[in-house]
């Protein structure tokens, strides 16, 4: 990590008329980190990224890169580069010309800009496609070109807005590995916006979970998963049960929950099996409070839980919908959620 290239957001606020997109964000991203801004649609991720990129002016607050205030600098002056969701390649320019475009605008000589663009195409394994037009490329190939084009400005921070959302699930997983490799090889800071917790977990050193224009939790992926701070984070990250007790709300991982037979069993939370989902190496047992109707359940997610168990264990003693069981967990696996 290079402390000199830390990116800092200080008291960042963005209003669009009466709408509050970002309600006050303080965040420090270490130089060289892979940061994912994660959250549901409308939580303010893209607005935050656009303020870092210089495509949007904050209503309040500032953006600092390597200790230098860059809040009001133009996108080209601040040392960041954005890779857009739609890739936004020029359709009438070849791959090489697309990558060289920003240098052409700056008046860099043809031979020099094409040599630099050629090096970047090599980095993203697109050299054989240099003379093609974007329309003759697959989604994954277009994305590689978009990355090479963003790198042409030699940014310290690469900003990625939902970079994998246009790809099919198979390609998305392949491109995740490529992003990791590029991040490692380039050694620069990546800030990646996503609504996919799986993507954030797979990629980020720093996961920033956002809700209603604020940060709910920021930390390493494992910390956020192991210790979600709030009910929102536990639910959004998934694979957790939120259990209401007289002492407050608890989060317990669904793979740490155990089921035991019948109402007669001592302790535990009485539950009824609503559905079974086979997942290959494990089985998800969906549970509700006894007496819950389907409609009421949809309106009250807090009264629904999941026990995730290894497939071998499930098949030893299969469970069926409608069965009454008890849900158990150990104290060590439960932790309190902030009110
Ligand atoms: N130009 C705009 N004018 C008015 N409101 C806007 C504008 N841009 C965003 N908003 C509003 O600000 C809020 C945050 O939007 P933003 O795009 O930052 O969220 P997001 O988390 O990136 O969502 P998504 O994942 O859907 O892109 C939303 O309620 C949105 O409707």
TrEMBL record:
MF-aspect GO terms: ATP binding
Protein name per its UniProtKB record: ABC transporter ATP-binding protein
Signal peptide range in chain numbering: none
Domain called ABC transporter: residue spans: 7-237
Source organism: Ideonella azotifigens
RNA-binding in keyword set: no
Keywords linked to the UniProt accession: ATP-binding, Cell membrane, Membrane, Nucleotide-binding, Transport
């Amino acid at each position: 990590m290079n402390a000199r290239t830390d990116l800092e957001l200080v008291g960042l606020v963005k209003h669009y008329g009466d709408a509050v997109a970002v309600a006050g964000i303080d965040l420090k991203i270490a130089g060289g980190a892979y940061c994912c801004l994660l959250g549901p649609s409308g939580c303010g991720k893209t607005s935050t990224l656009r303020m870092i990129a210089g495509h949007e002016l904050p209503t309040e607050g500032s953006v600092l890169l390597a200790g230098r205030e860059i809040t009001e600098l133009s996108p080209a002056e601040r040392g960041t580069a954005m890779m857009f969701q739609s890739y936004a390649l020029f359709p009438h320019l070849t791959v090489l010309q697309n990558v060289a475009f920003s240098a052409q605008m700056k008046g860099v000589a043809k031979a020099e800009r094409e040599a630099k663009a050629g090096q970047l195409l090599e980095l993203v394994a697109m050299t054989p496609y240099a003379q093609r037009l974007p329309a003759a490329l697959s989604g994954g190939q277009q994305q590689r070109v978009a990355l090479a084009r963003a790198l042409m400005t030699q940014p310290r921070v690469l900003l990625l807005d939902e970079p994998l959302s246009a790809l099919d699930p198979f390609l998305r997983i392949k491109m995740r590995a490529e992003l990791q490799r590029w991040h490692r090889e380039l050694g620069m800071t990546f800030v990646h916006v996503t609504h996919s917790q799986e993507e954030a977990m797979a990629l980020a050193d720093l996961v920033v979970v956002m809700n209603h224009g604020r940060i709910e939790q920021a930390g390493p992926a494992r910390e956020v998963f192991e210790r979600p701070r709030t009910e929102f984070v536990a639910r959004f990250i998934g694979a957790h049960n939120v259990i209401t007790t007289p002492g407050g709300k608890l989060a317990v991982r669904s793979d740490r929950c155990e089921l035991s037979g019948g109402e007669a069993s001592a302790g535990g939370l009485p539950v009824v099996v609503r559905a079974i989902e086979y997942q290959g190496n494990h089985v998800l047992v969906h549970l509700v409070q006894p007496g819950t109707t389907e409609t009421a359940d949809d309106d009250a997610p807090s009264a629904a839980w999941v026990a995730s168990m290894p497939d071998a264990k499930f098949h030893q003693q299969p469970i069926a919908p409608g069965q009454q069981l008890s849900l158990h967990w150990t104290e060590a696996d439960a932790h309190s959620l902030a009110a």
